[in-house]
Amino acid sequence: MDKLQDFLGAAGGNATHGGAYPAGGPRADDDDWNGAAQHASQHAGDSGDTDLFSNLLGALGQKKQRIADEDIDEEEAVRTHKKYFQDDDDDRDADDRSMGSAAAMQALKMFTGGESGNTAKTSSQGAFVALAMAEASKLFDKKASQGKVSSDSSKESAVMQAGEMALKMYMKSQGGGSSGASGLLGLASKFMYNTVRNSLTTINNMAQPQHPESYATYTALPEISFQHVPPTSPTATKVILLRLDRPKANNAFTDTMVTSLVSAFDMLSADARVKAIVFTGADPRNRVFCPGMDLDAASASAKGAASPGSLSLGSGARKENASSEIAASRAAYRDGGAQVSLAIYRCAKPVIAALNGHAVGVGITMTLPANLRIASEAAKVGFVFSRRGINNEACSSYFLPRILGAGRALTLLTTGSVYSASDPAVRDLFAEIVPPERVVPRAVELAQEIADKTSGVSTRVMKDMLYKGAPATPEEAFLLESRVFFDLFRGRDSVEGIRSFLEKREPRFDAVWEQDRPTAWPWWEEKEEDKNALKPKI
């Protein structure tokens, strides 16, 4: 099992709800710091001091409540990290506060990239705080050897600042259905979202794991896996297979899977080497793509939730407290399936969903934002929410009627029936329906064709034109299409597309979104609640 999954287990991260039910009740705190001082000393190497780390960890525990109430200056944290760990060319003296902040950010980058080195099985909280302290210790010694430490700064203070910042990050990341290392991945995503306006390059380097040389050997994201096309390629390929990988549980949907899928789609979206993504399930029998949420995990989580009946028991004060807790949980909750759907929706690369088996509940709804879907002729498809006493999720109330029309969408949701993929009720969800053993190969063929023969800038713009700020009238469509066409027609991919057609050869598209997107993009204005929905609740 990879390091990240070890941390998730140590933090109790697998005990969260299954992505379809709000989590309720108190969550156990990950307070076990056993071995953290030794872990910090080991990581710090020659800069390590177990006694120093142990004393500071003890003092840190006394400040926990105060730290939990403090905010994080995200932009300042990114700036200090860039100053000390990327540029490293500042001649000004380093102070303990900025070194501590930078060290905590470096620890966040390393931890979410699977580089924590936690061999002592320290809890995820202890390992993360220890990593930040160790990085601060090394940074202080480095700056001191260069004579670049301010006169009023000390190693002890810099290490303490790093520990406080790391603990603050950790405590703010534990919520909204996330815990342990999965919560820290969510925090890294939040840093990426909030600072992208200022520096896209900084965020790509800081707030998400660096693009691996090989996705096939990348194991930092549990419950999913990657494959190159062809599989023998040692480095990333134009087409990447992204697979749900819980075959023993029939790829049932979990919170851990949510975090991993969102991180994976965001990472592949930003990787210039990747041109198309095939999203499928790891099932050698080709019987199940995803049966929906993991009901066992959801039931276990629901046992801790307050029920409506429980509010009538006990004193008035207890009833008021219970109501407040439920209200807070309701406000903080974000549907896991929707987080995956939004990651696919905003993905810059075409996504082909290869349903190599049954797809029920979130197993089908999360695929609706994909550019196209290929289904097995043996697959069953069901929007079964009315038969489980819940509502449809994963943004399907937006995507489903746009694909099938409101009439058929309402029929599927009202009956909750399960259909064969070829049934007229659901047939139009799929670009093609093929034998089970042909689903993934056919999806790969289409993805390869898209990667080789289409412009990534063009396909992304056209998807956005259909979904994002779609024109309400033909006249609005006329104006928008004209503005976009004006820029793309003068772009290098258009020049190459026309030239290759006239020369009767395959195109070699090389336009880059950041440089070649139309000036009209984005032509829509995001609502504030939409922006909030994209942020992990921490």
Automatic annotation (TrEMBL):
Region spans: Disordered: 1-52, 64-97
Gene3D superfamilies assigned: 2-enoyl-CoA Hydratase, Chain A, domain 1, Lyase 2-enoyl-coa Hydratase, Chain A, domain 2
Secretion signal, residue range per the UniProt entry: none
Domain of life: Eukaryota
InterPro entries, sorted: ClpP/crotonase-like_dom_sf, DUF7721, Enoyl-CoA_hydra/iso, Enoyl-CoA_hydra_C
Pfam families tied to this protein: DUF7721, ECH_1
Location of the DUF7721 domain: 32-115
Name of protein: DUF7721 domain-containing protein
Protein's organism: Xylaria flabelliformis
